[in-house]
Amino acid sequence: NVGVYGINQGDLALNSGNYDLSYQGNNLTITKALLNVIADAKTKVYGDADPSLTYQVSGLKNGDTAGAVLNGGSLSRVAGENVGVYGINQGGLGLVSANYDLSYQGNNLTITKALLNVIADAKTKVYGDADPSLTYQVSGLKNGDSAGSILTGGLNRDAGENVGVYGINQGGLVLTSGNYDLAYQGNDLTITKALLNVFADAKSKQVGTADPALTYQVSGLKNGDSAGQVLAGGLGRVGGEAVGQYDILQGGLALTSGNYQLNYQGNLLSILPLPVTPGDLGQLAALSDLRELQKGRDPDTPGDAVYRTTTLENPFLENPFLRAYALGMDVSDPNLLPATAAGPAEDASAKRVGQFTDRPLRAEAESGAGCSNQSYLADYWSCFNKPLNF
């Protein structure tokens, strides 16, 4: 061990008789060996726990071990958790052996930046609507940090307002902390089609006249668009010219813009009968197909007839009366204008039966001479170029 040890004569002796030996001793001094402790360089990511502070030992002698000559204390480091370089100090590490002098050589703990992941959320909007907020998810926060405390600014997206897919970019989103590296992962804003509602207008016309323009109302236009900019073509309808109702169809009306989805709601074109006049009834009375009226009956009174003539061209009826009214109407209905003259002559005052829609005209004829209490009814829809529902 370290110390001073006397140097004795030992077995040193003369082998000559010519001398007397006078011995003067001295000392052997054992000095401390130099024990070198060199701290290992260390690194960690911001926010992680410190690694163990280890070291290398050199200069051990006589079979000594580090555990036998060192007190088991630990190294320490300069305080701090932000990104940077921090010295590793001897701390509580010391010797338990007096045979060594300890030479400590420090090193550094380097704290590196943590990776902060920012992942943009996928977004969608309908054409013409305002953009949604461009939000994101954050992972990799350390040491109790919040996104709001280390990030500033916002995302942006590729320009465009038409239907399509637009990339969401990092924009002005940046770090305010030096403890992170930012890894940005983008996403997309998808603009979907807006619903354009087209409602056909109900239309009507009198039979035999030209169709009215088939018009429509539009709702759901966006971004200042007009119907003329996004639609082309016109509506159509189910064919037919007889009195009745016909569906108004989308026809050739179509979108010229890819920003909309068209929702069409149809309507009806009503073909209405022309008014029936006493003159029209005269035409009816002259038609040859009234010969089908081979049986007749006496009206309750001649005044029930709204049109009477002695010239009804039907060889099977003598001095006939003709009464016309709308199907489904009681002949005593006040909407029927009865004739006032009792004789078998045309009654101009009868004027017209009325204006009933969607009902065929019913004609009843009777012979003044026979077939009493027998009747034959015929329904006429367009006997004379006018529908007879009124």
Automatic annotation (TrEMBL):
Q: Which Pfam families match?
A: MBG_2 (PF18676)
Q: Where is the MBG domain?
A: 35-110, 116-190, 196-269
User: What is the name listed in the Swiss-Prot or TrEMBL entry for this protein?
Assistant: MBG domain-containing protein
